[in-house]
Design goal:
Layout: H1 3-33, H2 40-66, H3 71-94
Helix pairs in contact: 1-2, 2-3
Length: 95
């Protein structure tokens, strides 16, 4: 993948993450203020999507940082990525 295509994809993910996050926070605020307004599962799903997209953007940028670094830095990076993926997929089971 060319650098330009990767940057464009990161920009799209970042934009969607901000939009979804803003909508989720708006719904959380409405849910807290209006008793008859219940969007718990929807806001939870939107927040999860926003967090995942944000993590993808950050992970790709951080991967660029690891290039040329020591093996320790790269191992720490991959351990964190794997932990995030496991927690995102199985988080509700563990907590």
């Amino acid at each position: 993948m060319s650098s330009t295509k990767k940057n464009n994809l990161l920009e799209v993910f970042a934009y969607v993450a901000i939009v979804v996050s803003a909508i989720a926070w708006l719904l959380v605020g409405l849910d807290n203020k209006i008793d008859s307004f219940s969007m718990g599962k929807l806001t939870g799903a939107l927040q999860l999507i926003a967090v995942i997209l944000t993590f993808i953007v950050v992970a790709v940028v951080a991967y660029g940082f690891t290039k040329g670094k020591s093996t320790t830095v790269k191992v720490i990076y991959w351990v964190i990525v794997i932990i995030f993926i496991v927690c995102a997929v199985f988080g509700n089971i563990f907590w």
